[in-house]
Design goal:
Number of strands: 18
Helix content: 25-40%
Number of helices: 13
Distance between the termini: 16 Å
Length: 432
């Protein structure tokens, strides 16, 4: 197993953004891998094939196959909790497509682990690998260095450090019909050494944000999701209650990276923010930002109605009997009932996730009397993704897991995510 790196042992990889920009190998520097002799141990090789001018570029990338999902599911008797995700997410050889006129070729620097990989590896919602023809190449959140651009690309040049977004198929309003590297047909993800993307799929990384490389890598999927959830929640509430009737709101989110960022937005705008999670490390990290922590384990993760009642009593005590005006619930399952129980009158419950359950139920009469709005969203528009990067560092300051995983340890990273043992957003260093 390859050695992993801690946050305090980054070697030549930078802690500060200024260091990061010095240390990232740029394509216009002599030490760049472009133009260097191809070595047998290179993970990416380019060669002429068939005596034509067609160039075949091979790279290393992680894949999930329907066969691996079926084998691991059978080995564990269909028990999703017992599945070893590290046996499903496997390193593979990937042929990159030829560079088109609007394409950009990236050297991937770092990626974050995303929960949709757990869904893909366990097939707990849909067997996406099977639906996509038997194999997917996952990874829809990455930081990369531009190493080559197509003839019609004007916004990026070799050496730019960029982030990806995963809006795979915008509708006429810009919102995604499909997510890249998940349910978007023929989409290839970015858990790879190199990648080819269209220029509209990347955004220049905010290198002056004050965040380090790992923190920037944590945000391309999570920050746009939180940004849209916050605008939806607050906007819907203001349709019902204007600022002059109530300026400061009580805002609750349950555990997870998107939920943390949602609360950072709330706190930045002067609202009371509360974070309910089982991880003490993550609660402690948010308390440094003035966000009040609530231990979810204290209420047995809402396993019974008595646990939900106890949670409601606790929340009412924290909010002078009012409850939560805005609730962000990315988990569903038993958390959904708990979130509705503590909802204040005229409140808004928003979600873009289903980690614990796809299907929920509620008493429509009760929510109608309370005038509670239950709202669902998915992911941002490309323009919204770019706008969210303006808040990197000033608002979004993610909590990073204390181990930075090596590329070879990516499968273990996802197994530990499956086991829910990580203390922050997990990051994988891809570039050597």
């Amino acid at each position: 197993m390859a050695a992993s790196r801690s946050l305090t042992a980054m070697a030549t990889w930078s802690i500060s953004v200024s260091s990061m920009t010095r240390n990232v190998v740029r394509s216009d520097q002599p030490e760049s891998h472009l133009g260097a002799p191809i070595r047998q141990d290179d993970r990416s090789v380019t060669e002429l094939t068939g005596g034509t001018s067609h160039m075949t570029t091979m790279t290393k990338a992680y894949a999930i196959t329907a066969e691996a999902v079926a084998a691991e599911t059978e080995a564990n008797g269909g028990d999703i909790a017992a599945i070893d995700v590290s046996k499903v997410v496997q390193l593979d050889d990937l042929e990159l497509r030829d560079l088109g006129p609007r394409d950009v070729k990236l050297k991937i620097l770092a990626v974050s682990a995303e929960h949709n990989i757990d869904h893909a590896a366990t097939a707990d919602t849909i067997n996406i690998a099977e639906a996509r023809g038997g194999k997917i190449y996952p990874g829809n959140s990455a930081v990369g260095e531009v190493i080559e651009v197509g003839a019609e690309v004007t916004a990026f040049t070799a050496g730019d450090v960029v982030i990806t977004h995963c809006n795979g198929d915008p509708d006429r309003f810009g919102f995604p019909l499909r997510i890249w590297a998940y349910d978007m047909p023929d989409s290839i993800g970015w858990y790879s050494k190199e990648a080819v993307v269209e220029d509209w799929q990347i955004i220049k990384a905010p290198l002056d944000s004050g965040l380090n490389l790992w923190e920037i890598a944590a945000l391309p999927l999570r920050a746009p999701t939180a940004y849209h959830l916050w605008r939806r929640a607050l906007g819907i509430y203001r349709v019902k209650v204007p600022y002059e009737r109530q300026a400061r709101l009580n805002v609750l989110s349950f555990g997870g990276g998107v939920g943390e960022l949602f609360l950072m937005l709330a706190k930045a705008e002067g609202h009371n923010a509360f974070f309910c999670a089982g991880s003490k490390e993550r609660r402690d990290a948010l308390e440094k930002h003035g966000i009040v922590g609530i231990d979810q384990k204290q209420f047995n993760r809402f396993a019974s109605s008595d646990d939900v009642k106890a949670f409601n009593k606790h929340v009412k005590g924290l909010t002078d009997g009012v409850g939560m005006h805005l609730v962000c619930d990315m988990l569903r399952g038993p958390v959904f009932e708990a979130g509705l129980a503590v909802q204040a009158r005229l409140g808004v419950n928003v979600s873009a996730g289903w980690q614990l359950s796809q299907v929920v139920s509620y008493n429509s009469t009760v929510q109608s009397v309370k005038q509670v709005t239950i709202d669902h969203t998915h992911y941002e528009t490309p323009e919204g993704c770019e706008a969210a990067t303006e808040l990197y560092g000033s608002v979004f300051k993610p909590t990073i897991h204390d181990e930075i995983y090596s590329f070879e340890d990516l499968p273990r990273c996802f197994q530990e995510m499956h086991e829910n043992t990580q203390t922050g957003i997990p990051i994988i260093r891809v570039a050597d």
